[in-house]
């Protein structure tokens, strides 16, 4: 029972990203035989909302672990992102044919992407910016481009725009 109490508390905070620390907690107090079962339940707890992930596959880019400059990121955002996500990310434009009907706002950003840990926050946002994503719906007019995979932005520019997005979504 003790193990599951730890698991519940941690998974609400960090959702899918707890698997490694969770496994080591299990190993420490439960022994290796329990690890397989525990890991499966760690990734599929009944009460957690899954973290939003892009439709396009791929891991984090270099930008996710670089230091970004939010001031430069503000300019990059205004030139490249504002047309769809709105000024300062406050209101996504209409997106006919998509399930949501609009491009998501980034300020405030989807709650599952936000984290008090800036590294986790950067990772979550980076996946979308690197690889792009097509929203749900039969014929979405607008989709998120793969800024990293197409080298439209450099990794430093992506790190800067991530720092800007984090700066406009202060930790709650
Ligand atoms: C052509 C319109 C368009 C532009 C320009 C654009 N995006 Fe997006 N973006 C989208 C759409 C549409 C989605 C929703 C994707 C989905 O639902 O899978 C999205 C999703 C995102 C998300 C995930 C948000 C969430 O709630 O799921 C982030 C982060 C993001 N964009 C950042 C950026 C950044 C940074 C830029 C500029 C470098 C940018 N976008 C430029 C259309 C755009």
Question: Which SSEs are present, and which pair or pack?
Answer:
Blueprint: H1 2-14, H2 19-30, H3 35-43, H4 70-80, H5 82-85, H6 118-131, H7 155-167
This protein binds heme C.
Walkthrough of the structure:
This protein is an all-alpha fold. The protein folds into two domains: 2-43, no CATH class; 62-167, Cytochrome Bc1 Complex, Chain D, domain 2. It is 44% helix and 0% strand. The chain has helices spanning 2-14, 19-30, 35-43, 70-80, 82-85, 118-131, 155-167. Helix 2 (19-30) packs antiparallel against helix 3, helix 4 crosses helix 7 (155-167) and helix 6 (118-131) crosses helix 7. It is globular and about 35 Å long. Mean pLDDT is 83; it is low at 1-39. It binds heme C. Heme C (HEC) binds at residues 52, 54-55, 80-81, 83-85, 95, 103-104, 106, 110, 125, 128-129, 133-135, 142-144, 147, 161.
List keywords for this structure.
single chain; mainly alpha; binds heme C; 7 helices; 172 residues; Cytochrome Bc1 Complex, Chain D, domain 2; 0% strand
**Which structural class do you get from the secondary structure elements?**
mainly alpha
Rg, Cα atoms, Å: 18 Å
Oligomeric state: single chain
- Unreliable stretches (pLDDT < 50, length at least 5) are 1-39
Tell me which CATH architecture of the largest domain applies here: Orthogonal Bundle
Can you summarize the main beta sheet? none
CATH class membership of the largest domain: Mainly Alpha
